[in-house]
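This part of the workshop introduces the protein records we will be handling. A record pairs a protein's sequence with a compact description of its fold. As an example, a complete record with its sequence and its structure tokens follows.

_____
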Amino acid sequence: MSAPHYLLALALAAVAGRAHAQCPASLLRDPAVLELVATDGGIAPVAKSTDDFAFVDDATTVLELMATVGTPNASRGARTLLWCLENGTVVIVTTTPTELIKSIRSGGELIYRRK
């Protein structure tokens, strides 16, 4: 799936959905952040902790990430995806134009960086 296709999928996910963990209000007040809602009827996986993102390597695509940890709760621009966990943690995933994972951060700590 090309970058415009996964962006379209994310945009469509914003229209209906299931319960996600709630993103912090301070994050949602940022006008650059678009809150998303999954349209999978509650059957997709949901990330529980930052450990759920540990499998990512240089070959992992955005779609593979979403298949494992579920859809993001929000996006900031076209290449930054945000997962809000139940414990209040926000996981920030930046992507490349070719849909690969560039980096993953949470709480100011780097979880993964593409080599």
